[in-house]
Structure formats: C-alpha cells, structure tokens
Amino acid sequence: MPKRWVSLLFIALCLFGYAASSQGAATTSNLTVNTTVAARASLVLASATINFPDSDPTTVPSIGATENAVNVTARVRTGSASTATLQVLAGGDLTSGSNAITIDNVTWTATGAGFTGGTMNKTTPQAAGSWTGPGVYAGTFSYFLANSWNYATGNYSATITYTLTAP
Amino acid sequence: MKRMQILLAAACAATLVFAGSALAAGDTGTVTLSASVAAKAALTLSGNTAPNFDLSTVDNGTAVTATGATTVAAKVRTGATQNPTLTVQAGGDFVNSTYAGNDIPASDVTWAATGNLIAGILSKAAPVTVNGAWTGSNTYTGDMTWTLANNSNYSTGTYSNILVTYTLTAP
After folding, report:
1. Nearest CA-CA distance, residue A80 and chain B, Å
2. Which residue among B22, B34, B78 sits closest to A50, beta carbon to beta carbon?
3. Of A88, A148, B26, B137, which one has the greatest count of Cβ atoms within 10 A?
4. What is the CATH code of the structural domain delimited by B40-169?
5. Number of domains, chain A
6. pTM of the full structure
7. Res B7 pLDDT > 50
C-alpha cells in the first residue's frame, strides 16, 4: 500500500473515533435483590451448672442455688405475629447412686418480660418463656431445691434441657 | 447460554429448598443441676423435760413413775443404709446432800418407750441406746416415761438432780 493511502486511512479512523466518542451513550440494567429472612433462635444461659449447697432443712427449707440469679437471653427471629416459646424438661430425677430426689422438688422463679417460673418435670416440658414476634428477650432464672430431712446423703445431679422454638 | 440457564435453575432450586427448611428454628441449652446433701442430726425434746419423782407419799419398795412423758423427735439425714443412733447417759447419781453416802444410783431410773424408741436403764457409766432399728434419713419419734425404782434402802434427804445427756448421731 502506498504511503499516502496509509496516512489517509489513519486520519479517517481518528475522525471516526472522535465522532463516536463525542456522540455519548447510556444503558440500564435491572438487578433484582432478594433476601431470605428465615426463622432463627438462639438461647444463652449464663451458667451451665446449677449447684444447691448442703443446708439444714430446719433453718433452710428452700435452698437457693449458688448461681442465682442466672442470666438468660433468648434471641428470636420469627413472624411478627408468631409466638416463640421456651420450654424446659428434666432428663430425670436428681440421683446419687441408687438414691433419688424427685425433680419436682426443684422450682425456679423468673424475671424479665415473657419469662415464667415453674416446677421441674421429667415427663412433660414446662413453659419457661413465651414471646410474640422477633426480638432479644433477656431475663433471669433463680433455682430452688425444697430441703428435707428425708433426703439420703450424697452428691446428686440431674440434667435439664431448655428448648427455644421460633415458628 | 444453555449452561448458564441450567446453573441459574439450580441456584433457584437451592434457594427454594433453603427457604422451605428455615420456616421454623430452634435452639437448646443444657444445664446440669447438682445438689450436695450431707449428714445432719437435730434432736428435740418436749413434753415433760424435767421429770420429777415424788417419793413423799409413797412407801419404799413401790416404784414411782414421773408424771408426763418426755417426747423425743430425732431428725436425721444420713445414708440410705446407715444406722443413726440415739443414746442417753446420766451425768451422775442422785446425790444425797443431807446424809452423805446415801446416794440413789442413776441405774435405779428406767424408762418405758413408745414409737421408734426402746426402753432401757439409765447409766452414768456408759451411754445407753434409745433408738430402735433406725435406718436411713427420717424423723424418728417416741415418748419416754421415767420410773424410779424406789428401793427399800432409800434414805431421806435432799437429793441433787441428774442431768441426762442425749446424743443423736447421724453417720
């Protein structure tokens, strides 16, 4: 190709480029943003162990746990009209070898909106809290053991399980 | 393009499955309850806690029973197979302060028992068992009715009291 034609082609390309850039352009595109807010439940008990110290049944008929009052926080994400529940079920009686203290001798009191006190049960879950709608619900539980001269000596233990449900 | 559509469809399906499984949620927390129960013993005496033997109108040789029983309540917390014990022991004899050497021995005092107690003879030399067959934690109760033999060799005079000590033991 002759040198002159090369120069003309270069100039033509420059002019085309200028024309294209000075004309301007715009385009739009839609982005759909989705979010899924699913039900969530989180339960935090400040103490994983509750201890009832040895006490004289005559002078201390009801033994308060050394950990009282235990902070409890229930974080619930659920429908605005849905009711979240907190229940507690004992795995059995307080036992020490072959000796037992029936679990219904353990009671608890509660503070905080929605939290309720009650008596431990090993067969039927007991209500410990109830709330409508999502939120962070904080309260305390205080545990008590009915004292008795009829208990056999020993170190007793039992397990209780709290279940927080967000429908 | 077809591959893109397949991926998109798969992503949507996964989202739907996730949303469906998250309609309800729950959380659990486990707490261990522990209780320490140690041995304890508490003794309560009521009723006639100062039995008196009035020999002023009774001839020697006729036993005298104090009016009113001593009621015993022994609260014991112990092992289920352990045996609590209750004993009594005299602090001394009835000492005659008027005529020295004419004391009335504590062993002249006996008691009858009801409930969970057994009868016995008082002694200043050694504790005497009052409990029956006691096993495990419980509140054991009964009455003790005291009698003085009033033997024929008793001398007149003023006698000291006998202090009787009860000892309840929960092993």
Report:
1. 13
2. B34
3. B137
4. 2.60.120
5. 1
6. 0.79
7. no
